[in-house]
Write a structure and sequence with these properties.
Blueprint: H1 2-15, E1 19-23, E2 35-41, E3 44-51, H2 59-62, H3 68-76, H4 83-98, H5 104-133, H6 136-157, H7 179-201, H8 205-211, H9 219-224, H10 230-233, H11 241-244, H12 265-288, E4 308-316, E5 319-327, E6 335-339, H13 341-346, H14 348-353, H15 358-368, H16 372-376
Antiparallel strand pairs: 1-2, 2-3, 4-5, 5-6
Amino acid sequence: MQEQNSVKSRETLFDAEEMVLNMGPQHPSTHGVLRVLLKLDGETVTDLDCDIGYLHRGVEKIAEHDTYAMITPYWDRLDYVAAVSGDLCYVGGVEKLLQVEVPRRAQYLRVILTELQRIASHLLWLGTHAIDIGAVTVLLYCFREREEILKIFEDFIGARLTAHAFRIGGLWWDIYPEFEERVRDFLDILPDRIEEYEVLLNANRIWLSRTVGIGVLSSEEAINLSLTGPVLRGSGVRYDVRKAQPYSSYEEFEFEVPIGENGDTYDRYLVRMEEMKQSALIIEQALDGLPEGPVMAKVPKVIKPPAGEVYFPIEAPKGELGVYLVSDGSNKPYRMRIRPPAYINLQSLKRMAIGHLVADVVALIGTIDIVLGEVDR
């Protein structure tokens, strides 16, 4: 009798039309704190839902109880692999509230640091994306170059990961004497190193089989999902905040906005590879034209912006990062709202994954390039 029941249970299990599978949160490719609920027909994804909030810290609510200056370090910990970009977004929003003009030298230095951060962020993305799919060598190569950027940050800012680079009004201090030389040395080696990554991956048949035609998003779908950054540009939409709404003197630099043709995982890879080359071009121009002068504007010791509200966006490595600030005239914001690109881009995972295999979900999480500190906040 017991044996008959066991056989019947097995038959019921295998006769089931669909199966629900938890991928994460304790899963390497979901970055430790993302739970993806998969509904499967065999190994094919028929539905998907993301369960987030495991890393939620309530940054937006905390901001209502801290002064404007005290809030800045929280932005280092949103996208913690692109801390410098987060700083620029927040201080730019406060400066817009104050109507403060940041010195041009500080603007150029901000561009240099944030573009270095973009390269470092893309290197981390490429290394982890590749190892998720099975290419171990690329991770070691990418960390080799990323380490050089982190050393530059460490010597200038004092931190490697959550680098607190900017202050409201500019920079707290000017660059050290060897800064320019070290950045140029890095720019000299970068093209050859990017070529090494491309030699490893561009025509690799395993890489192509895991990325070409996987997670295709049309330009219309990407726009309707409010996607930004490389995910949007991979679908052929040439939108970049640095071009559309220039900030920090970006209008003074010549660079291209790369786009894809097919909107698949391989196109998004190509877009990010080209973005690293364009970032290097921007940094070189900023170093060549770096103005003399102060790096800090005159701002009051106690920052009390006039009552009003602003929205300030930047082009972060993962897309449009924006801050919405409401001031009531006090030294603390009445309201702070973050527009995180990783959180908004994550909603595309369902659209991209349905119809693909479970193994492809790993590649699709990687192609979005999420950081859960920014998703959960």
